[in-house]
Amino acid sequence: MSRRELREQIFKLLFRIEFNSDEEMKAQCELFFDSPDEVFSPEDEKYIKDKYDQIYSRIEDIDRLINEKAKGWDSDRMGKVELTIIRLGVYEIMYDDDVPESVAINEAVELAKKFGQDKSHGFVNAVLAKFAQQS
Q: CA-based angle 123:104:88, to the nearest 5?
């Protein structure tokens, strides 16, 4: 899988945390990788799991950072799709040295265009740009 495809899969897995408890997420992860809709190579599955785990372990810190930067938009008020994309983008900007900031923002905008509402990509871009200015 390409990095873009892997990022999309991470987004899909992260999106599930909005609807499931911590305990349920263990089963959700198993279901995600056992789905007949997508077949993952062992390397891709490891990459997705590792990145998901890294983001999930920092989710409270990431949400706190989002709430500090997104003036007038508490993470509780954001659409679940947009919040998930922003979480992924913030993680890549703040914690993943392998992803340049511009790539993290561009990929998040592309995810917002694909999965979000009409103007989601502009919102995602605006929020993540505040993180890029900080770094």
A: 70
Q: Give the domain extent around 81.
A: 3-134
Angle, alpha carbons 66-120-86 (nearest 5°):
30
pLDDT in tens, 72-103: 787 778 899 999 999 999 999 999 989 999 99
Residue 57, domain CATH: 1.10.940.10
- pLDDT tens digits for range 99-121: 999 999 999 999 999 999 888 99
Q: Is 82 exposed, middle or buried (0-12, 13-18, 19+ CB in 10 A)?
A: buried
Number of domains in the chain: 1
